Amino acid sequence: MICILFWLVGYFLFTGSRFKKRVKNQTETQPDIKKLHLHVQSIGWQEIHSHVKLSELLSIQGRTLSGDEFKVILSLGIGTNLCLIYLRVGSVIHRVPAGQTGLIEVKQGDAFRLIYEKSDITLTSLVNSIDASHPEKLLGENYFSLVLSLTNSLVDGLKISYAARCASLEGRFIKTWDIPNQQSDESIRSQVSSIEDIAALAEKVKNVQLASSFTSKNIQAVPLDYGVCYLLGKSGGMRLKFVIDSEIAFLIVSEYNPDINLSDFLKSLAVSAQMHAKIIKKDGIIQLLTQNKSGDYSAVSLSKSNVVIGMELTENTTVPVVRIELDETRGNTLDVYYQATSCFNNVLIWKNILPIPRPL
């Protein structure tokens, strides 16, 4: 009996030491994911100087670890400062307001940090940072962050440095007309939705009405009727104008078939949904939310720019389907214009939530 106990103790001590060695070896050989996805780049002023003379801009773009595209555009001062004039991460866009030179100004020895978390962008100026020449030290541990600095030293001279923890990162010089603007809109690459409860829409939608009929009979914009699905596009008209007083849902389909029952049609979409989006009012701001493959929503403020909702056919091809314009001066009036395309013929629009009646 004593021999057996000694044997068991020796066995566990031996296997335990082997297990510790195996764990240690795995820890030593396992790559640091954060270091693998850390990108650090810099541009010397000798290279930048010629682009300053041509009044060109510096564009830094790439893709986050979750697949969101991002872009940062800066104007180049004459050797002393940079101004951030445009930025976008996913569907969240910020552009320099009228009358201002930039969202953030970066002088020699300074830096700025961009943090994107929970569909929101935070910009922070880092003045006279001791780590300005090493922007990777200022990134932090956020979902996505980018740090850019402007430094001058006897060794390196004047240079722009930037770092981000992302899937890809590149910088290039562009002309002023390459800046995305409100007139040309921002195209949102909407992917196939993973909605599982589209069939439940049949419980809210009772009938279909042509968008052209609704717009023509109302001289002034009015709210949509609850329980009505408005058909835009093929046979439905090119425009739907209404006042936002509740959550509005959009469903882009290849083509609506009026010959089948609406309930059956919506149930069939549960198998092959094309794209789902909605418009909400949050903290006084009208936002457009589009779903990705995982069912999560990305938000863009309609107060800051007109938007084109597009369907992504391939990785590099997006087909525009509807253009959305918000007029806040007229009681949050929304204009939705159908962009004629042979790929997606109809857009179904309805009031997704019945507004709470006002007390008498």
Describe what you observe in this structure:
The protein has 5 helices and 23 strands. By secondary structure, the chain is an alpha+beta fold. The protein has 2 domains: 36-178, no CATH class; 186-351, no CATH class. The strands form 4 sheets. A 7-stranded mixed β-sheet has the order 13-14-23-16-17-18-19.
Number of helices: 5
Integer tally of domains: 2
* Order of strands across the main sheet: 13-14-23-16-17-18-19
**How would you describe the shape?**
elongated
Helix proportion: 10-25%
Q: How many distinct beta strands?
A: 23
Structural class: alpha+beta
Low-confidence stretches: 11-15, 17-34, 183-197
Distance between the termini: 89 Å
Please trace the helix and strand order, writing H or E for each element.
HHEHEEEEEEEEEEEEHEEEHEEEEEEE
What is the averaged pLDDT score?
A: 75
Percentage of residues in strands? 35-45%
What composes the largest sheet?
7 strands, mixed
Radius of gyration: 27 Å
Which terms would index this structure?
single chain, 360 residues, alpha+beta, 2 domains, 7-stranded mixed β-sheet, 6-stranded antiparallel β-sheet, 16% helix, elongated
SSE layout:
Elements: H1 2-29, H2 33-36, E1 38-44, H3 45-53, E2 57-63, E3 69-76, E4 81-89, E5 92-95, E6 104-107, E7 110-117, E8 120-126, E9 144-153, E10 157-165, E11 168-174, E12 186-190, E13 207-210, H4 211-217, E14 228-233, E15 239-243, E16 248-253, H5 262-269, E17 275-282, E18 285-291, E19 297-301, E20 307-314, E21 317-327, E22 333-338, E23 346-351
